[in-house]
Every structure is written in structure tokens, then in C-alpha cells.
């Protein structure tokens, strides 16, 4: 009984195994073109590795039947497929060529046998029995577009090989904001004429869509025509870029970006490659030491693995037998549909990434590595995914580091134009060669930057001596800009102004100097001292006011003295009772008194009345201030050299026609005036452009020379830092006015140069460390002949004192005079009142008689008015207070 149960179980197990099982030997057919040896090899290895894997097809053995197709003959291929089907195969792999593949596909479809492909197939529909492991071309095309967007390419050349390439890059051509030029590779194999054309064009970004075997050749020929330099960026669409030896271009500086589906650094891939190499002899193939699997071979390998895992899955649900099929017959393979569905459903991690398919049989969710060449090796710098697009993993700092590394030990050609003090030929008795021939501020600056960043420089002088102007008719640049655009130089340096137009053509670093346009003009000659230079401290109106004040004060003093009773004095002090009194301040004495005090000499005339003393005091105050001011200003006039310039600003230049003015022909100053819309500068441009003979000069040096020789009849518009340099050395020149604009000098580089940010960084470092300032001091200052003169010119010269400076003194003088007048009136009235009381006369009579006497304005004596005593003891009536003080008495006459 026990035995019966065991027997039953064994039978059941045996039966169940027999029900869901695969044949012991499963055949698969592989169609490969005879030149695709590697793919056939990969197919064989894949079969072998499936057989070695205990988890895949544990009870069956896979056999690969390889058919080598010698030509793209679809009839021949179809015959071979039919013979494979007759032998009983579970799937057909390949071929790679379009024509035969389509034929094979239709047979497989008819026979319901899975057809597994790994070729680039742009067809938008997949047949039901077909599956393709190659990334779907429109998805790949999207990847290219995403990457170029991330690289910020907007202008590029697409270098393509055949029409198939155009389909591949169509998404790039559909982007309306991109400008591209299509260039087809010449079938002759000589790509140089076409590559040369690209080099002469202003486009520096190149998309290369060519087959693997042509990539190296394109780069090699590109290098021959100068297309493999720092200024060119390449994007290679071929998934096999990692197989190309880029070592020869490692020093070129060219920036090569590419993509890969298979990562040669991946452990699984490397293990597989090692296995390939170990088993090579069994298949009679010999693989090179540095062999690396290609994308196509990896896809073949993955396809066999995928097929095996689908078959394994099928085994658990179906009793699979592989029937022999006649192409001409009606019989189809019943398991084909299930098998192909399993292949689409079961995701598998292959060496080409995740093997996942959508319902239409297109490979879904594949990912690409983004690569960049770094010293001849391709480094992963990002990843592209179908959902997330392109993402660069390298940080900005890492990018800069790579650029810095690339720049190290390189020799950059520096284009210069000879201009003082930026770039000059060294004066020496010895024969100088190479970089030793040049010196100057810019030469030192470049050397310092090179030292900082670890690169070498070689100076070259631009052949035409120009900085860079565009010919509006031909659109051609000249000078340094041309050299940069032609990539004959890597850097351009001189007093190179950053302008909008130049910035559009070339790249500029951060500015190393700031400046503006100004005027250089001949210093006015020292004026020979004039005969009347003593008059200079005061302006003419002050002199006139002073003379008027002198007259006014003198007359007022005289009048007040006549009014003031205390000014009337006993002329002979020994006579006790004089008959008349005398006034010492006659008109002439009044003039003498005021002039005496004005000249700081004094006189023996002394005012006695309060009013006259007020006048005298105020006048003395006035003279004190005026004389001090005069003395001080005269000293300044005598020590400071006063130079009058006929022009003080650009406005002055614009207003006149006598003094001609010009600038350097074709420089940024020339362009500034040519394009300015400011009325003054427009007017100046009008005057300059129509002047005959021409006011423009070949160089700044010539302009400065012309200013020196013109005797004040020519002014030169030049950049302020250059003016600063000239006036330090040519003492007869000076800068007139301020700056007309504000701009900077920078180092120019070819467009898209990878060195711009590094050199800008170096300039900033030199600025911050003060090195740049030291350099400027060294080349501008030093022992220059005009330093003291320059500072004297800068100090403001003494100017005559105007009424505004001394007007206050006049006000005080007038105020004092008014007070004095008032006091005189008071004194006069008081005296008249006293007299009236004494003489018992009316006040008005006394006042009028006194006024009449004063108004006579003649005679310095006044009869004493003696008081008639009512009794002999009655004291005498005193006429005035002075008289009273002195004991003189006046009697009424
Ligand atoms: N720095 C000027 C330039 O770059 C040249 C001198 C000038 O125009 O004043 O063109």
C-alpha cells in the first residue's frame, strides 16, 4: 500500500513535470551579417551563459543556430529563415539590415514565431510577433534634444552621414528657436573641405550623427583643419562613443559630449567582457586585449537572456513543444504569442539597462549616461531618463575645476597691439626674442594671470595694428577681434574697450580697468605778470566800490564833523575866551584822514565827536578787513601760477570752431561720438567728421603729438587712463574737464572660449589682492617728470576776490556811517536845545541858525556865541561840551 502511494506520487510529479515543460533542446536562430562577427559571438555567449545559469531554463538546453548573411539579399535571408523554421526554432534573432529584417519579420509574423531584433528601427508600429531591444528612435531623439537644451546650444551644425541620421536628429530640427546647419559627410572619405567650411563659420557647436567607424575619422580630420580646439563643442549621438579611442584628442581642448546605453564601467558588463575574452578561442575569434562590448552586441546578449527568462516563465504555464514549420504551409507555432507576451511583460535587468517594453513593443524606461571627454577619457557627467530628461550631476565648481585642469600647462596665444603703456616693445641694446620683446601693463597682467592659473603665454602682435572694428559692408572684423575669431589667438589684450558691438562678436572677461573719455589739451602758458597785477586781488567792481566808499566816508566825515559841536574847538588853547572855534576836519582833512587809515598810515587828525569817531572806527574796521583780504590774496596771486585755458569742458569745445579736436580713428572713442545721440556730442561728431584736414589720428600717440605741436589749436579726445599716463610724462599737457562716459577695458577671448570664467576669476583675484593697483602704479607713476606740476595744476588757482567775498565789509561800513549820521543829528539837536534855553530863544530859531551855518560849508572857524550874564558872577554860557570842558565859553553874538 505504502509503495502504491509513493508510486502514485512519483507518477503525479512526473506527469506534472511532463505537462508543464519545455523540450530538452530548444533551438533559436540568429541571422547576422557576415561583418557583424561580434554580434554572432555575443549571441553564442548569451546562449552559453543561459545554459550555464541554473535558474534559467533549468531542464532544457538552448542551441543557437547562426546564419551568416553575406549580402543584403532578402530572398536569400527568407530562404535561410524558412530552413531554420523547418528545423524547429523557438525564435529568430536579427538580422540588422532594414531590408532583410523586414522580410524576416513578415515570415515570423506569418508563422507566429517570435522575431527578436536589436536594430535601429524607426517604424512606428511593431508587428505582433516582433520585439526590439533597441531604444525607440523618437525617444532617443528626444534625449538628444533634452541634452542640447541643457547644454544651452542654440546654434549648431549637424554633421550627418545618411538619411537615416536625419530621422534620428529630427527632433533637433523641429525646435524653432534653434538655428542649425546640416552638413553631410562626403562619401569620398575626405571630410576636410566640409570641416574647413565649418571652421570658417561662426558656429562652434557640432552635432555628430555618424556611424561608429567614422567618428574617429571625423575628429582626426577635424583636428587637421583646426576644428579640435578649445572653442569647439561636439555632441555625438552614437551610443558606441565609449568604444572610440579619444586619447589622441585629449590635449586638443575640444569638448566632446556623448551618451551611452551600456556602461563599460558596470561590474556586470566588465564580467561579461572578461568571459568573452576567456572563451574566445572556442569560437575561433580573437578579441583585442582592450576589447569592450558594443551596444549592438550587448543588446543581442540581453535579447537572448530576455528570451530565456520569458521561456522559463512560459514553462510554468504551458507544455511547450517546438514544431517544425513550413513557410509554405498553414501551420503556425501556437506558443509564439504567449512567448512574445512574456517577453514584453517580464522586466529584466540586462547589461543595457532595464529591459522593459510598452504594449506597442517599444522599449520603455531606458536610461542613458551623459558623457564628457576629460583628458581623453569619457566621464559620466549626467543621466538622461525618459521621465526626468537630462540631468547633469556635475556641479559648477567641478566644471570650473575641469576647465582649470584643462588650461594648466597649455600655451595660449595672446594677441596684442602696440600701445603705450599697455603693450610696448622693450627698448634694449640686446636682440630680444619671444615674449621678452614686449613689456607694459597688459603684458605684466597677462603674465600674472598665467602664473596664477598655471598656463603659458606667447605674445603675437596683430598684423594690422588695429583693435577690432567691423566693416559694415562685408561684416568682417579686423585687428585683434579678427585674430580671435579666426582662432589664431586665444586672448586679446591692450587698452581694449568693452563695447556692445565687440561683445557680440567675442567674449570679454571682467574689466581690469575703468575709465571714460576725456580731453587732453595743451597746458596754457604762464601769463607774464602784468603791470597792474597788484590790482588782481580784487575784482574791478570791488575797486570801484572801494573808491566810492572812500569818497562817501570822507564827505560824510566832513559833514558830521561840521554837525557835531564837539568838533568845534578852540584854535588857540592859550586864549581863554576865543572869539571863534575851529573844526579840524575840513573836507581836505577828511579825505586825508580816510586815505591815511586806508593806507594803514594814520594822520594827526583825530575825530572828537561821537559821530565822527563812529565813522572813523567803522572806516578803520573796513580798511582792516579790506587790507587783510588784499594782502592775503595778493600773496596767493604772486605765488600761484594762474593759467587761463580757453576750454574747460567738452561743451566749450563744441561751442567754438577755432580750436580743432579729434580722436583715434576707428577706436571706441570714435564709435562713441559716431553713435551718440546727445546734442553736444552729435555736434562734436559733426565738426570732427567734416573737418579738413582730418582731425582723426592713427593712434593715441599721434593725437598727443598733434596736441603738443598745435600750439593750443588742437584738442584730443582720449580715454582718461591714457590721458593720465600722458600728462604724467608730458608736462605741457593736461586733462580738460571730467569724463564724458564710463566704460572699461577687458581681455577678449574667442566666442564660447572655455577660459573666460577662469581668466575673469584671476582678474578678480588680482584686483582684490591689490596686485592690479600695484601694476597700474608701476606703469603710470614711477619717476615721472611732471608729478609736481600736475599736482600744482590740480590745485585750484587763486582767484580775485569778488564783491561776494568782501560785500559784508561794505555793509558794515554803510551801517556805521548811518549810526554816525544819527548820532551827529542827536548831538546837533541837543546843542541847539541848550543854546535856545541859554539864550531864551526858540529852539527852532537856534536850530535854523545852526543849520544855516553848517550849510555854508566854508570856513573852519565858527564865532563863539557868548552868553550875556544877567549878573557879573553869572558863569559864561558854554557853546559846546568841548568848550565847556576846556573852560571856553561862548557868548551869543
Ligand atoms: N580703447 C580704444 C578701443 O578699444 C582705443 C582708444 C580710443 O578709441 O580712444 O578702441
Topology:
Blueprint: H1 2-19, E1 25-33, H2 37-52, E2 61-69, H3 74-87, E3 92-93, H4 98-111, E4 115-117, E5 130-132, H5 137-151, E6 155-160, H6 163-168, H7 170-174, E7 179-184, H8 192-200, E8 205-209, H9 212-224, E9 233-236, E10 255-260, H10 267-278, H11 295-315, H12 336-345, E11 348-350, E12 353-357, E13 363-364, E14 367-374, E15 377-385, E16 389-392, H13 396-407, E17 411-416, E18 424-425, E19 438-439, H14 441-453, E20 456-461, H15 479-485, E21 491-492, H16 500-505, E22 507-508, E23 513-515, E24 517-522, H17 540-563, E25 568-569, E26 580-583, H18 587-598, H19 610-639, H20 650-655, E27 660-663, H21 668-675, H22 679-690, H23 700-709, E28 714-719, H24 720-729, E29 733-736, E30 743-745, E31 748-749, H25 756-768, H26 771-780, H27 787-794, H28 803-838, H29 843-856, E32 861-863, H30 881-886
Helix pairs in contact: 2-11, 3-4, 11-12, 14-25, 17-18, 17-19, 17-28, 19-28, 28-29
Q: In this structure, how is the largest beta sheet organized?
A: 8 strands, mixed
Q: Please state the second-level CATH architecture of the largest domain.
A: 3-Layer(aba) Sandwich
Q: Let me know the CATH homologous superfamily of the largest domain.
A: Response regulator
Structural class, from secondary structure content? alpha/beta
| CATH class annotation of the largest domain | Alpha Beta
Roughly what fraction of the amino acids lie in strands? 15-25%
How are the strands of the largest sheet arranged?
7-6-8-9-10-14-15-16
Count of DSSP strands: 32
Amino acid at each position: 500500500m505504502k509503495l502504491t502511494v509513493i508510486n502514485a506520487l512519483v507518477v503525479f510529479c512526473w506527469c506534472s513535470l511532463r505537462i508543464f515543460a519545455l523540450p530538452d533542446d530548444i533551438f533559436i536562430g540568429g541571422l547576422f551579417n557576415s561583418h557583424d562577427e561580434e554580434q554572432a559571438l555575443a549571441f553564442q555567449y548569451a546562449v552559453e551563459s543561459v545554459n550555464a545559469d541554473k535558474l534559467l531554463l533549468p531542464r532544457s538546453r538552448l542551441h543557437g543556430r547562426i546564419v551568416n548573411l553575406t549580402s543584403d539579399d532578402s530572398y536569400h535571408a527568407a530562404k535561410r529563415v524558412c530552413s531554420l523554421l523547418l528545423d524547429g526554432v523557438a525564435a529568430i534573432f536579427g538580422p540588422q539590415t532594414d531590408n532583410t529584417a523586414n522580410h524576416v519579420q513578415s515570415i515570423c509574423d506569418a508563422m507566429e514565431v517570435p522575431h527578436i531584433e536589436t536594430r535601429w528601427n524607426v517604424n512606428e508600429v511593431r508587428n505582433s510577433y516582433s520585439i526590439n531591444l533597441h531604444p525607440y528612435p523618437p525617444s532617443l531623439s528626444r534625449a538628444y534634444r533634452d541634452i542640447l537644451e541643457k547644454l544651452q546650444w542654440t546654434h549648431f551644425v549637424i554633421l550627418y552621414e545618411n538619411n537615416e541620421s536625419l530621422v534620428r536628429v529630427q527632433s533637433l530640427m523641429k525646435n524653432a528657436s534653434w538655428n542649425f546647419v546640416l552638413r553631410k559627410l562626403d562619401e569620398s572619405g575626405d571630410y576636410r573641405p566640409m570641416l574647413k567650411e565649418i571652421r570658417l563659420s561662426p558656429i562652434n557647436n557640432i552635432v555628430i550623427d555618424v556611424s561608429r567607424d567614422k567618428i574617429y575619422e571625423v575628429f582626426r580630420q577635424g583636428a587637421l583643419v583646426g576644428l579640435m580646439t578649445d572653442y569647439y563643442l561636439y555632441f555625438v549621438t552614437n551610443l558606441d562613443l565609449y568604444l572610440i579611442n579619444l586619447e589622441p584628442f585629449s590635449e586638443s581642448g575640444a569638448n566632446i559630449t556623448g551618451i551611452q546605453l551600456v556602461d563599460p564601467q558596470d561590474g556586470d558588463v566588465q564580467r561579461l567582457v572578461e568571459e568573452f575574452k576567456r572563451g574566445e578561442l572556442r569560437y575561433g575569434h580573437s578579441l583585442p586585449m582592450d576589447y569592450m562590448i558594443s551596444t549592438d552586441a550587448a543588446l543581442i546578449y540581453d535579447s537572448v537572456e530576455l528570451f530565456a527568462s520569458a521561456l522559463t516563465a512560459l514553462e510554468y504555464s504551458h507544455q511547450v513543444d517546438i514544431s517544425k514549420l513550413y513557410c509554405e504551409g498553414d501551420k503556425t507555432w501556437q506558443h509564439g504569442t504567449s512567448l512574445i507576451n512574456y517577453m514584453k511583460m517580464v522586466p529584466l535587468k540586462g547589461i543595457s539597462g532595464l529591459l522593459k517594453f510598452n504594449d506597442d513593443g517599444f522599449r520603455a524606461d531606458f536610461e542613458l549616461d551623459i558623457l564628457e571627454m576629460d583628458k581623453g577619457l569619457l566621464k559620466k557627467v549626467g543621466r538622461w531618463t525618459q521621465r526626468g530628461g537630462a540631468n547633469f550631476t556635475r556641479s559648477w565648481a567641478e566644471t570650473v575645476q575641469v576647465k582649470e585642469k584643462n588650461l594648466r600647462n597649455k600655451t595660449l596665444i595672446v594677441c596684442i597691439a602696440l600701445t603705450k603703456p599697455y603693450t610696448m616693445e622693450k627698448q634694449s641694446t640686446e636682440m630680444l626674442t619671444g615674449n621678452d620683446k614686449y613689456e607694459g601693463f597688459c603684458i605684466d597682467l597677462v603674465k600674472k594671470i598665467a602664473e596664477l592659473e598655471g598656463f603659458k603665454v606667447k605674445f603675437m602682435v596683430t598684423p594690422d595694428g588695429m583693435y577690432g572694428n567691423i566693416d559694415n559692408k562685408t561684416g568682417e572684423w579686423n585687428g585683434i577681434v579678427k585674430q580671435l575669431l579666426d582662432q589664431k589667438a586665444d586672448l586679446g589684450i591692450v587698452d581694449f574697450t568693452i563695447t556692445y558691438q565687440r561683445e557680440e562678436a567675442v567674449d570679454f572677461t571682467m574689466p581690469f580697468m575703468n575709465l571714460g573719455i576725456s580731453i587732453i589739451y595743451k597746458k596754457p602758458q604762464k601769463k607774464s605778470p602784468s603791470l597792474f597785477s597788484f590790482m588782481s586781488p580784487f575784482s574791478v567792481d570791488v575797486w570801484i566800490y572801494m573808491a566810492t566808499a572812500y569818497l562817501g566816508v570822507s564827505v560824510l566825515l566832513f559833514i558830521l564833523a561840521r554837525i557835531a559841536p564837539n568838533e568845534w574847538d578852540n584854535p588857540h588853547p592859550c586864549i581863554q575866551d576865543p572869539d571863534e572855534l575851529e573844526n579840524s576836519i575840513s573836507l581836505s582833512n577828511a579825505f586825508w584822514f580816510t586815505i591815511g587809515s586806508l593806507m594803514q598810515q594814520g594822520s594827526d587828525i583825530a575825530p572828537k565827536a561821537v559821530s565822527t569817531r563812529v565813522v572813523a572806527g567803522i572806516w578803520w574796521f573796513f580798511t582792516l578787513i579790506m587790507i587783510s583780504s588784499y594782502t592775503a590774496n595778493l600773496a596767493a596771486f604772486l605765488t600761484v601760477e594762474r593759467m587761463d585755458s580757453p576750454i574747460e569742458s567738452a561743451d566749450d569745445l563744441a561751442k567754438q570752431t577755432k580750436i580743432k579736436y579729434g580722436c583715434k580713428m576707428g577706436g571706441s572713442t570714435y564709435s562713441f561720438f559716431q553713435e551718440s545721440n546727445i546734442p553736444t556730442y552729435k555736434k562734436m561728431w559733426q565738426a570732427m567728421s567734416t573737418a579738413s584736414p582730418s582731425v582723426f589720428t592713427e593712434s593715441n600717440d599721434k593725437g598727443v603729438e598733434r596736441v603738443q605741436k598745435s600750439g593750443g589749436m588742437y584738442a584730443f579726445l582720449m580715454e582718461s587712463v591714457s590721458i593720465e599716463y600722458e600728462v604724467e610724462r608730458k608736462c605741457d599737457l593736461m586733462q580738460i574737464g571730467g569724463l564724458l562716459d564710463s566704460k572699461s577695458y577687458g581681455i577678449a577671448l574667442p566666442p564660447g572660449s572655455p577660459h573666460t570664467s577662469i581668466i575673469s576669476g584671476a582678474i578678480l583675484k588680482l584686483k582684490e589682492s591689490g596686485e592690479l593697483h600695484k601694476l597700474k602704479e608701476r606703469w603710470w607713476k614711477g619717476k615721472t617728470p611732471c608729478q609736481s606740476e600736475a599736482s600744482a595744476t590740480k590745485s585750484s588757482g587763486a582767484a580775485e576776490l569778488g564783491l561776494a567775498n568782501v560785500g559784508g565789509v561794505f555793509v558794515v561800513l554803510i551801517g556805521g556811517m548811518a549810526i554816525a549820521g544819527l548820532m551827529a543829528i542827536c548831538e546837533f539837536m541837543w546843542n541847539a536845545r541848550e543854546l535856545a534855553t541859554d539864550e531864551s530863544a526858540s529852539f527852532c530859531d537856534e536850530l535854523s541858525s545852526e543849520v544855516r551855518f553848517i550849510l555854508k560849508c566854508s570856513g573852519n572857524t565858527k564865532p563863539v556865541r557868548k552868553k550875556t550874564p544877567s549878573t557879573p558872577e553869572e558863569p559864561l554860557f558854554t557853546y559846546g561840551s568841548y568848550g565847556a570842558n576846556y573852560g571856553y565859553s561862548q557868548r551869543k553874538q
